[in-house]
């Protein structure tokens, strides 16, 4: 994990209307996938995916950063897998393209599965760092152009949503 000097902080949201709050720190070196479903006016849902790893920070660094948010929230320090271009050129590019300052984190690199599910539900994927050799999209998607993310948008528009 050569990118471990660059990271993204992910904090869970505390639900003030009920439920339990937990405070924990995720240990480093776990493979994880962060995703976010953005609702874009005039377009609908759009999926973002970032595969990477959890990382450990020195205790004094973690403490300073952790105290800048609600101390009852769980903390996961995350570094995405970078590819040197586009939204995954560097960590700053990932965060600049990310729909908000949070997302949902799952154990394991499951981005390819999320992309397949999104195509089945006709939800375009506008950013991901999954290797193209790992991705399955319906064969009809190839009729919508060679840019795979752009073809997501065009295919989803033509076929229409499967949800209402």
Q: Return residue spans where pLDDT drops below 50 for at least 5 consecutive residues.
A: 1-5
Strand content: 15-25%
Q: Estimate the mean pLDDT confidence.
A: 86
Largest sheet: 6 strands, mixed
- The SSE string, one letter per element, is EEEHEHEHEH
- Number of separate helices: 4
**Distance between termini?**
41 Å
Shape: elongated
Write the layout of secondary structure elements.
Blueprint lengths: L7 E4 L19 E10 L3 E11 L4 H8 L8 E6 L10 H7 L6 E4 L3 H11 L3 E3 L20 H12 L5
Parallel strand pairs: 3-6
Antiparallel strand pairs: 1-4, 2-3, 2-5, 3-4
What would your notes on this structure say?
The protein has 164 residues and is of the alpha+beta class. The chain is built from 4 helices and 6 strands, in the order E-E-E-H-E-H-E-H-E-H. The chain has helices at 59-66, 91-97, 111-121, 148-159, and strands at residues 8-11, 31-40, 44-54, 75-80, 104-107, 125-127.
């Amino acid at each position: 994990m050569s990118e471990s000097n660059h990271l993204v902080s992910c904090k869970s949201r505390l639900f003030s209307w009920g439920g339990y709050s937990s405070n924990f720190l995720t240990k480093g070196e776990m493979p994880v996938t962060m995703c976010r479903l953005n609702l874009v006016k005039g377009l609908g849902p759009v999926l973002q995916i970032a595969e990477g790893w959890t990382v450990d920070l020195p205790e004094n660094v973690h403490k300073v950063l952790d105290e800048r948010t609600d101390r009852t929230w769980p903390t996961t320090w995350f570094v995405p897998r970078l590819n040197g271009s586009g939204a995954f050129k560097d960590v700053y590019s990932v965060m600049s393209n990310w729909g908000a300052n949070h997302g949902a984190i799952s154990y394991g690199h499951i981005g390819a599965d999320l992309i397949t599910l999104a195509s089945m539900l006709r939800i375009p994927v506008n950013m991901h760092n999954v290797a193209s050799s790992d991705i399955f999209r319906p064969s009809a998607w190839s009729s919508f152009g060679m840019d795979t993310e752009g073809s997501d948008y065009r295919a989803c528009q033509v076929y229409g949503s499967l949800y209402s």
